[in-house]
Amino acid sequence: xxxxxxxxxxxxxxxxxxxxxxxxxxxxxxxxxxxxxxxxxxxxxxxxxxxxxxxxxxxxxxxxxxxxxxxxxxxxxxxxxxxxxxxxxxxxxxxxxxxxxxxxxxxxxxxxxxxxxxxxxxxxxxxxxxxxxxxxxxxxxx
Amino acid sequence: xxxxxxxxxxxxxxxxxxxxxxxxxxxxxxxxxxxxxxxxxxxxxxxxxxxxxxxxxxxxxxxxxxxxxxxxxxxxxxxxxxxxxxxxxxxxxxxxxx
Lengths: 142, 98
Fold this sequence. Notes:
The structure holds two protein chains of two kinds.
Chain A: E1 2-7, H1 13-24, H2 31-51, E2 59-68, E3 72-81, H3 109-116, E4 119-125, E5 128-138
Antiparallel strand pairs in A: 1-2, 2-3, 3-5, 4-5
Chain B: E1 2-6, E2 11-15, E3 18-20, H1 25-35, E4 41-45, E5 49-52, H2 54-70, E6 72-76, H3 80-88, H4 91-94
């Protein structure tokens, strides 16, 4: 497993992206899946920068693991912060049926994670918020 | 991103190219808010857009709400992957996709 620890700031999203790219570099993953994973990493990381330590700043840890065999693989990414206990999965999903006038701006990040990933779990462990996402993929399929 | 004004300044065409994420959306939004005055037709061309996160979706929705009051907004050349995001988030209902 590869791990990155950064101060949870917006500016460090660039470091997170580079770390993700390096971690998945040797992985024969369809480019679409790569972009889906990148999207979820951005959404979760930005959530940490906005909510975990506000108005202070603190650390965020990101771990990337790829498991599987010749054909079927799974990428597992975990996010840990030491901020206020907060389970983003408890947040109510946006009402995507609403029209333009009633539709609030925002609230889509975690919803995108839930709809794009195959598994998303939250736990509060050892004083940390830990959110783990999993995505299954078939190798060499695009 | 490219900004082009035509039709005597009434039409603003914005090409979103590459990645629209949390790092570059503040600049995009600032530029849009500066240019939008007097514009009655806003066109987003997404031909070169490879990646958009919820930060970019927020900007599109903000502009759609603004343009409802002052004219029209249309989104062109959405690729399959971005369209999937528009579908999942219900944006297909909110945006005028040409």
